[in-house]
C-alpha cells in the first residue's frame, strides 16, 4: 500500500468513527439543529474535503461534469434537505471505492514494475586495463564489461571469457536457467547466476534488448482499445445528460403536479449519486492494464489494449515455418554429388555461401569445417529466397533452389531420392559453369512444442491454421502433415508471403482478425501487414519489436495460444464489467426516480458496483488455464 493509500485509509477510519459517534449521539441524546449539523459536518469534511476542492478547481478549469462534481452536488444537496447521515455515507463509501481502485491499480502496476526491475543500474567496463563503474548508456559498442555472480547483465554482448549460468525468467518467463560459455551471446536484463564473465558489448544501451522492452511496455498503455475509447466518449456525454436529467427530475414534477419540492429534490440527488459512471471509467481501463501486466509476466509483451482486443478476435493464424515451427538451426544431413566427389561439392558450396548470413548458408559453412580461402571468391550476388551466384576460381557457381537453376537454364536432378531419405529437408542445388554438379540436403528439426501449439490453437476454436514457407512443396507438405496444419503454402518469396496474407485478409470472416507469427528477422513486412503481428523469440531482433504488435520473448510457439487465451479472458472481464455496471445502475436509477430506492440504496449501488467491478478487473492479472 502506498503512502497516499495509507493516508486515505486513516482518513476513512477517522471519518467512520466520527460518523458512528455522531449518529449514535443524534439517536440517543438526540442532537438537534446546528449541533446535529456540526456533528455530521466534521466527518464529512474529514473524508470529503479533497473531493470538494477538486470539484471547485475543475469547474474553474472548464471540466465541470466529472465524478467530483457529482459527489459534491449530491452530498451538499443532501445536507440542504436534512439528510445528514446519508450525505456523510455517500462521501465515505465513495472514498472507500477510491481506496479499492488505488489498491487495484497498484497491483496492476506492480506486475509491470516486476518487468521494470530488469533495468540495469550500472556497468563495470574495462578501460586501459582498469575497471570503471559507469552508467550503461556510457558504454560503447566493442568495449568489454565484467559481470559478476548475482549481477544483472547490463548490455547485450558476446562472452569473451568465463563460463556461467543465466536466469532469463524476468524477460521470457522461463524458470529454467541456461548455461553460457565463450562465444555465446547474452542479453541485457538477464541475471548472471554463477561465475564471473567478460562480455564484449554488441549493442549500445539505447539499442539493447532491455531498453527496447522497457520502451515497449511503458508505451503499451497509450494505445487504447475501441471498447476503452467508447467508454471515454460515453462518459463525456453521459455525465452532462444525467445532470440535466437530475435537474429536470427536481424541478418539473413539483411545477407540473404541485408535488413537494423536498421529495423530488431528494429523488434527484439519489439519481445523481447512482449516475456516477465510476465502475465503467475505472474498471475497463484497469481490466486492459491488468491484461497487459498479466501477459508480461508470462513473457508475452502486448503493445497496447487495442491489440488485446484484436487478439481476442483471431480466427485465422498463419505461421512462418523456419525459426517459428522449426528450430531454424540447420545441419547438413546428406551430400549427393553428380560429377565430382562429396568433399569437392561441399567445398564449392561453402565458398559460394560464405558471405551469406542465411541459416542454410551458415550450416553448409559449418559442415565444411576447414579453412575457407576467401581469395578464391570473386563477385557474389545473393538473391532473396533463391540462393547465391558466385565467382569461384574464375568459374560461375550457382548454389540454391531449383528455381534459381531453372532461371539459368539448368535442370537439377536427384531431388526425389534425396527427399525420400529426409522428408523434412531443404535441398541446395549446385551448378558450375552451367553444368549441374549435385545437391546438398539441409535438415531443419521441427520444434518439440510445435505440435502441441497447433493442438492448443484448435482447442481455442481457431478455424484456420496455415503455414507459409520458402521451402519446396515436398518439405512444406511434410512439416504440415507432421503438425496437422490445415493449409501449407510453399516456395514463397518474401513478397509472395505478403501477397498471400493480403488475400487471406480479404476473405476472412467479418468481425474476425488474422494473426501472423514469425521469427521476426525477415518477416517484418508480413508482421506489419497482418491484423496482429506476433514476433516469436525476438528479443534480439530490432525488426520484430518494431514491426510486431505482440512480442513473445522466447521461441515457444505454444505462447501464441496462450496470448489469444489471455486476451479473450481479458475481453470477457471487460464485457462483464460493462454489462454489470449498466444493468445495476439502470435499475437503481429507475427505482430512485420512482422513489422506491433511497439515498442509502444509491450509495451501495454506486460504491458496490465500483468495488465489485474493480475486483473483477484485477482477475486479469492472474492468468489461468481456462479459455
The Cα radius of gyration reads 33 Å
Strand order of the largest sheet: 10-22-21-20-11-18-19
Q: Specify the biggest β-sheet.
A: 7 strands, mixed
* First and last CA, distance: 32 Å
The total beta strand count reads 22
What share of residues is helical?
A: 40-55%
**What is the mean pLDDT?**
81
Low-confidence stretches: 415-423
Look at the structure and give the CATH class of the domain at 331-443: Alpha Beta
Question: What is the secondary structure topology, with strand pairs?
Answer:
Layout: H1 3-28, H2 33-60, H3 67-80, H4 84-116, E1 123-127, E2 130-134, E3 144-147, E4 157-161, E5 164-167, H5 169-172, E6 178-180, E7 185-186, E8 191-194, E9 197-201, H6 209-220, H7 226-257, H8 261-275, H9 278-296, E10 300-302, H10 305-312, E11 314-320, E12 331-337, H11 342-353, H12 359-368, E13 377-383, E14 387-392, E15 395-400, H13 402-407, H14 415-421, E16 425-432, E17 435-443, H15 450-459, E18 464-468, H16 473-483, E19 487-489, H17 494-507, E20 513-518, H18 524-529, E21 532-536, H19 542-547, E22 550-552, H20 558-593, H21 599-617
Parallel strand pairs: 11-18, 11-20, 18-19, 20-21, 21-22
Antiparallel strand pairs: 1-2, 1-3, 3-9, 4-7, 4-9, 5-6, 5-8, 10-22, 12-17, 13-14, 14-15, 15-16, 16-17
Helix pairs in contact: 1-2, 1-4, 2-3, 2-4, 3-4, 3-8, 4-9, 4-21, 7-8, 7-9, 8-20, 8-21, 9-20, 9-21, 10-20, 11-12, 15-20, 20-21
